[in-house]
Every structure is written in structure tokens, then in C-alpha cells.
Amino acid sequence: MPTKITLSTFAGLAALGLLLGACHKSTPPPPRPPPSVTANQPAQREVVEWDEYPGRLEAVDMVEVRARVSGYLQSVHFKEGAEVKTGDLLFVIDPRPYQAELDRTDAELKQAQTRLELAINDLARAERLLKSKAISEEEADSRSKAKREVEAAVQSARASVEMAKLNLEYTHITAPIGGRISRKMVTEGNLINAGQGQSTLLTTIVSLDPIYCYVYADEHSVLKYQQLAREGKRVSAREAQIPCELGLSNEQGFPHHGVVDFVDNRVDPNTGTMRARGVFPNQDRFLTPGFFARLRVTGSAKYQALLVPDQAIGTDQAQKFVYVINQKDEAEYRPVKLGPVVDGLRVLHDGIHAGEWVVVDGLMTVRPGAKVMARKVAIAASNPATNGASVTQAN
Q1: What pTM does this model have?
Q2: Which of 68, 70, 282, 283 has CB atoms 3.0–4.6 Å from 170's, for a disulfide?
Q3: 290: nearest Cα among 182, 374, 164
Q4: pLDDT tens by residue, 369-384
């Protein structure tokens, strides 16, 4: 017989089904906690911006050593690539022909001096005889003119002797400046030519201490420096020597200190740049002419700046921004304008204020307007200075 289901039984079964369905429903997840971030207050510091330029080291003095007399190269008296002092003997050209020439001119001088003594005696006798009317005035005048002629001959002979002495000295070629010498361009036994425009190059010498670094400043930077000078915020390099710093390609920072001592008189219309020069001491000979170098000069007046770690700065397409934690522990999106780097910290010209807390760690987990759980630490604890440099700004 079929079982009869009463209304009360159906109601009981429905209640049981609802109870079982409720048991199978998933429990909603608890709300996600705010992201944990690290925040710093911006450091406040008085800074000066530096403009950086690539350059090349050049010697203050560079001399091409050439012969002033012709002859056979007899000997070489230096070590190639060594450092020489002013006056050191470098080359000797065979001096014998010039010694013979000096002996000849010296003998001619003595002959002229003997003729002069005879002419002086003849003139003295003529003057005595003229007083007693023993000779004519014409004869006395002739002897006077003969004396003058011989005096001129003596002067000519003396000049020839001096020239012969110079030529003999020129056979011993000495270092005109102190510095590092190159290799010998001519070996012993070769004929040296001293003809004008065809003088034989023997070697070169470059000075070492001090040393120059030449750079080229762009037109925009030159205009900026002129504006700063007009406003009295920065002295012009034309009026005073301004400090500059230099670093080589394998050096961190700018360990070499010097001054800018020259700025050219015009902007090159082909490149739109102006040449300038820094001079640096080089007692240890570490700086070598021809090296590539980085030179920087002060590019602004001193000003108070706010600085944050570079990792606090985010990029939104072309816009740079930071997150600032407000009083409600919410992250505020702040566009910022970047300045130079100072001791590993980035200068921000606008966008933040002193005393605000800037997110420096956990930036990728933050969303604008969202709450955050911030661990607030001092900026020096998480971002110590990296190299002690003041400011570096590349152009």
C-alpha cells in the first residue's frame, strides 16, 4: 500500500532541508588587515647643487723637443717614459763641427782685435803729427775712419763668436720643462735636420703638476650661471676662482679638489657649448694627461631642502609621486618634482612638507586613500649616507 504523506510530515521535511542547506553554506572571510609599510619623515638639510660634466685631462705645459742645429745624433741620455727635470740632458748632436766653427770665429776675433790695436796706434800718431803740421788733415781723417772700420769688424767677429758658442750649446739638448718624457723619436746615428719648418722632432714632454681638466658647458647651463651671478647667488668664474671637484672613471665620488681658472670668451656656434677649465694639484702623479674625468661645479646657491630615500619615489607614466600617511593612517598620493641626490637621499622640490611621513618600504602594496599600518622610523636609521658627497646633478 502506498504511504500517505500528511501536511505535517511535509512541513517537517522542508524544515530539515533548510537546516541542512544552511550547514553547507561557506562562512564569509574576515576583512583583510591594512598593509604594513615603513615610513620616514623627510630630512631637512642645507644643500648646494652641483652640475656634472664629462672632460679630459690635459697637461698645463706640453713641449715638442726639436733640434736647433743640424748634425748626427751622437747619444741619448734619458729613460723613455721617465720623469725629467728642467735642464736635464736629453740628446747630444755631434759637437765637433760646431767646436771647429767656434775656434775659427774666435781666431777671426783675435785678428780683428789686433788690427784694432794697430789702428788705434796709427790714429794716435796721426793726431800728434797733425799738431806739428807733419801730415795733412786728409791723412789724419783717413786713419780715424780706418779705426772705426776695424772697430766694426771687431764687433762682427765678436757676434760670430757668440753665434758659434750658441750653436755649440745647441748640440746638447736639455729638457725645457719638468715632466714626463715620451719615447725617443730618433735613434743614435741618424742625421738631425734643424731647417726652419723641417726641424726633426726628437721627443715630447708633458708637465704633471698641476694638471688641467677641460669641459664643455651647454648654453642652458651658461645662462643659468650668468643669472645666478646677476642675482648675487653665485660668484662668476670670470671674476674669481670657484671650487670644483673631479673623479676618474674608476673612482667613486669626486675625491680630487681644484678650482675653475678659465672660461672661454664665446659659445661655440657649432656645438652650442662653452669651454671651461679646472686646475688640480697632482703631487702624487695619479692624474695623467688624456684620462677621461668627471668634473662638477656648484650650480646653485645654498638652500634648505627636504630629502627622502629614492625607493620612496614611484613612477606613474611620466609623473613621479610619493605616498604620504595622513592623520587617519591613509595613504595620500602626492605628485613630486625631483631634485638632485644628496648623500644617497633625493631632494624633493615640492609635493611634501616637513614633518610628514612618507612611505619608503612596501610601496607596491599601497593604494591611494587606503589605510596602512605604518612603522615609523628615523630616516638615518634606514638610509645612511653612501659616500659623503654633497650633491650630484648630471647635465
Answers
A1: 0.70
A2: 68
A3: 182
A4: 888 888 888 876 444 4
Confidence grade of residue 140 (pLDDT, cut at 50, 70, 90): low
Beta-carbon contacts of residue 279 (< 8 Å; ≥ 6 apart):
60, 210, 211, 212, 213, 258, 259, 261
* Domains, the chain, with CATH or none: 36-48+302-394 (2.40.420.20), 51-60+208-298 (2.40.30.170), 63-93+174-206 (2.40.50.100), 96-170 (1.10.287.470)
Where do we find the cell 670644483? 244
